[in-house]
Design brief:
- By secondary structure, chain A is mostly helical.
- Chain A is built from eleven helices and no strands.
- Chain A has two domains: about 30 residues; about 210 residues, MetI-like fold (Orthogonal Bundle), CATH 1.10.3720.10.
- The longest helix of chain A has about 40 residues.
- The N and C termini of chain A lie far apart (about 50 Å).
- By secondary structure, chain B is α+β, with helices and mostly antiparallel strands.
- In chain B, the strands form four sheets. In chain B, strands 6-7-8-3-9-10 form a six-stranded mixed sheet, with helices on both faces.
- In chain B, a hairpin with a 2-residue loop joins strand 1 and strand 2.
- In chain B, helix 2 packs parallel to helix 4.
- Chain B starts with about 20 loop residues before the first strand and ends with a helix.
- Chains A and B meet through helix 7 and helix 8 of A and strand 6 and helix 2 of B.
- The structure holds adenosine-5'-triphosphate (ATP) and magnesium ion (MG).
- Magnesium ion binds next to helix 1 of chain B.
Chain lengths: ~280, ~375
């Protein structure tokens, strides 16, 4: 009898596992499938984005890396990287300062500032983009690239702010207190204790910010001008006009770059993990 | 081996050295929000002494330590170290070393780096930092682990590193917040002896927070009994044990029997009480009490023994159970009024003199071992009538 009950239980367990496995696989297919398809298309020999491709070639990558034929894409890519780096640097610094200031604060003002820092995550980006466009032209701020950087900082800062404040909240206050009672000044405590311990959190947040900036369409679309095209928007224009297969090649490069960055991040985080 | 423990030469460059500083708390009150965690605490910790803060969980022990270390600023009162008021002095300038219950070792620094942290922060020259690290790691027998990270150590090893770290910073005052929690009994005993010895040698004023009364009794020169943010009693361990100032101090430290009684007569310092279970005994009353008042007589188990016949200071009872506990035997007896009491006697080789169920008499030996407290739980109808 006990045996029967046990078998029943196992059956339950197995059906649960099978269901979970199927759902997991479905999610995997939905997430990874499009990536594989676009990769396959990028190696096509055809001159259209047909799937499945009829032959293998590197012609679209050659076209993409040709400095003459793809100069506009290159400029957009450089813009994107530049904006991404600036936004990452500024956004991470701001988020770090804000998280440090608000980490242990309990007051109403501090709580509302905390909420304020994460609202861009929930507000429609497109509304912010419109508002920013109106605002910048109102005050006569003409430079497109700095404007985009500012816009990206605003919409992406919650990602870093959250990761940094999460690692700060896991920092044992007794470590800070020990450091002080051993004679260390606040600055020294920050440099030798706080910063090294939250560094993986800062790194992860900065990575997320860069990735989000690189992909951002809404803000870039509204704030860029003819000379400062951004990569995602350029890609959209290429598709819209000519169904240009180079878009698939750009996607391939982006996927590869992301993978490399992710592996680097993993290493970085793990190394600092080991340093803890 | 003893060379290690010789008094250390004064280090130039070490900002903090010299020991034997007194700690003076005057009227300390601290609230968290509306909750009063520490209430008007005044205390003088003599320079070079080891004082234990003893009290139940949540009574404000850590809060007091945090105030002394400078991590919190009490709403009222003042703290002086070595006669100098430190209320406005930052924690890193107070020269107060603290060992936390969870040790709080820096997780990303090696054992040696942890120990070097304090001297480095104080600007001690590099060669001396190295010497301090070696000396203190050897002191706690952790020299072989210098390169390890804290998470690669056992709880006891981490505790020893925490101690080395705090000593390397050469504090004026040492605060220990329940530092022996993670240790097994033997290691705990070793560390207790070690800390006691170091503290004596360095003449280092030390405050030990604990809720282990045996630890407080064995290590401290004075015990501060705390309850609900207030000091209940300050005294030498034997004082606190034998002459508890309050009912709380009497029951929290050691185990004790509380026997209901009434005051029969008062002559000078001694008060004669009549036990509800029958019999009269003389005891010490910490607070003045009126004749006829209801009281609780607190008698330690080892201040009673089982005897055969009735007599002065003896109470009739029935033996319920006897339990051998190491070198002693604990008897549980039922007194005439139905209350249970514990009696602890040295174990003899003759075998038990009484068997469970036997009628016995309990002799109360109250030379220094009993105190009476007003029985606040029960209103006294007689006193009401008198009023
Ligand atoms: N940061 C805080 N905010 C609010 N209340 C607190 C805070 N820290 C402590 N308290 C409260 O103050 C009281 C005293 O706390 P404290 O930490 O001093 O107790 P303790 O005597 O050290 O207890 P334990 O033996 O459990 O460590 C407790 O009731 C606790 O709940
Ligand atoms: Mg505590």
């Amino acid at each position: 009898m006990a045996d029967g009950a046990r078998r029943g239980l196992d059956l339950d367990l197995w059906s649960y596992r099978i269901l979970l496995g199927l759902l997991g696989m479905l999610a995997l297919v939905i997430m990874v499938g499009p990536v594989l398809i676009v990769l396959a298309i990028s190696f096509t020999a055809d001159s259209s984005m047909r799937f499945p491709p009829s032959g293998f070639s590197l012609r679209w990558y050659e076209a993409l890396f040709d400095p003459v034929r793809s100069s506009q894409i290159h400029r957009a890519a450089i813009n994107t990287v530049q904006v991404g780096l600036w936004a990452t640097a500024i956004g991470t610094l701001l988020a770090l300062l804000a998280a440090l200031a608000l980490a242990r604060a309990r007051g109403v003002a501090a709580r509302s500032a905390d909420t304020l820092f994460v609202t861009p995550l929930m507000l429609p980006q497109i509304s912010f983009a419109v508002a920013a466009l109106v605002f910048f032209s109102m005050i006569g701020f003409e430079a497109a690239k700095p404007a985009i950087v500012i816009g990206h900082v605003v919409v992406c800062v919650p990602l870093v702010y959250k990761t940094i404040s999460a690692s700060l909240s896991q920092l044992d206050p007794a470590l800070i207190e020990s450091s002080a009672s051993l004679g260390a000044s606040r600055l020294r405590t920050f440099r030798r204790i706080t910063l090294p311990i939250i560094l993986p959190g800062i790194g992860a947040g900065a990575f997320l910010l860069f990735m989000a900036s690189k992909d951002n369409v809404a803000v870039s679309l509204f704030l860029s001008d003819a000379r400062t095209n951004m990569l995602p928007i350029r890609m959209w224009q290429m598709l819209e006009g000519t169904l240009d297969v180079r878009v698939a090649a750009v996607s391939g490069v982006l996927i590869l770059a992301t993978l490399v960055l992710m592996l680097a991040m993993e290493r970085f985080v793990r190394i600092s993990d080991r340093l803890r | 081996m003893n060379v290690l423990h010789a008094p250390r030469p004064a280090l130039e460059g070490a900002a903090l050295s010299g020991t034997g500083h007194a700690v003076t708390l005057t009227g300390i009150t601290h609230r968290y929000g509306g909750f009063v965690a520490v209430r008007d605490v005044s205390l003088e910790v003599a320079g070079g002494s080891l004082v234990a803060f003893l009290g139940p969980s949540g009574c404000g022990k850590s809060t007091l330590l945090r105030a002394i270390a400078g991590f919190i600023r009490p709403q009222a009162g003042s703290i002086a170290i070595g006669g100098e008021v430190v209320d406005d002095v930052r924690p890193n300038r107070r020269g107060v070393g603290i060992v936390f219950q969870n040790y709080a070792l820096f997780p990303h620094l090696s054992v040696a780096e942890n120990v070097a942290y304090g001297p480095q922060a104080q600007g001690v020259p590099r060669a001396q930092v190295r010497a301090l690290v070696e000396e203190n790691l050897r002191l706690v027998q952790m020299a072989d682990y210098a390169k390890r990270l804290p998470r690669e150590l056992s709880g006891g090893q981490q505790q020893r590193v925490a101690l080395a770290r705090v000593l390397a910073a050469r504090p004026r005052i040492l605060l220990l917040d329940e530092p022996f929690g993670a240790l097994d009994k033997n290691l705990r005993f070793d560390m207790q002896i070690e800390i006691k010895r170091l503290q004596r040698e360095l003449n280092l004023t030390t405050i030990l927070v604990t809720h282990d009364q045996e630890e407080a009794m064995s290590m401290a020169e004075r015990i501060v009994v705390l309850n609900q943010g207030r000091i209940e009693q300050v005294g030498a361990p034997s004082d606190v044990y034998d002459r508890p100032a309050t009912l709380f101090a009497g029951t929290f430290i050691g185990s004790t029997n509380l026997l209901p009684a009434r005051i029969a007569a008062i002559s000078g310092a001694t008060t004669r009480v009549r036990l509800a279970a029958g019999g009269e005994v003389d005891a010490v009353a910490p607070a003045p009490l009126g004749i006829g008042g209801r009281v609780l007589l607190s008698v330690r188990p080892e201040r009673m023994r089982l005897v055969d016949g009735p007599g002065r200071g003896r109470v009739a009872a029935r033996l319920d159970v006897s339990m051998p506990l190491g070198a002693t035997v604990v008897h549980e007896v039922i007194l005439a009024d139905g209350l249970r009491a514990k009696v602890s006697e040295p174990r003899t080789h003759d075998g038990p003199a009484h068997r469970p169920g036997d009628p016995v008499h309990v002799e109360l030996r109250l030379e220094s071992g009993a105190a009476i407290f007003p029985d606040g739980l029960v209103e006294d109808p007689e006193q009401e009538n008198q009023a």
